[in-house]
Design a protein that fits this description.
- The protein has two domains: about 40 residues, no CATH class; about 90 residues, Jelly Rolls (Sandwich).
- The relative contact order is 0.23.
- The chain is built from no helices and 13 strands.
- Helices cover about 0% and strands about 45% of the residues.
């Protein structure tokens, strides 16, 4: 996600947003509009959809991040589970929220959340379990 700078002495409209003189903007989108004078400042910040990647080896609670690596609120996300060893169960938001998602060795599971309804994962595992969890921001 490159960073651009408005090098003119006046404000410009870029993709419907006002960019003041001297202001830097980051964009994944189309910036080549007629009359727009921007210079490329940096290739950073780099886009990264992964907001959490953890190896879980004991029962615990995992908080789903509320913001991404750029500080933007996450409302849509996917949670990916991969159980490498043992058995585990995942409860959503609370230990009392039954039934749980039960995972067995070699099990892979993907869960998409299109509204922010899950804030934490309660992980309960057998002895010597290894569970990988990846949370990915969706656009």
């Amino acid at each position: 996600m490159p960073t651009y700078k408005n090098v003119t002495l006046s404000r410009q409209s870029i993709n419907g947003k006002i960019v003041e003189s001297g202001q830097e903007v980051c964009s994944f989108g189309y910036l080549d509009e007629r009359g727009v004078q921007l210079i490329h400042v940096s290739d950073k910040p780099f886009y990264n959809p992964v907001v959490l990647s953890e190896k879980i080896e004991k029962s615990c609670t995992v908080e789903i991040p509320k913001k991404d690596n750029l500080g933007k609120f996450i409302d849509k996300f996917s949670v990916h589970f991969c159980l490498e060893n043992g058995e585990a169960e995942v409860l959503f938001n609370s230990f009392e929220n039954k039934p749980s998602l039960k995972l067995y060795p070699g099990c892979k599971w993907n869960l998409r959340c299109f509204e922010r309804q899950i804030d934490k994962l309660v992980i309960v595992g057998s002895k010597n379990f290894i569970l990988w969890i990846i949370v990915e921001k969706l656009s």
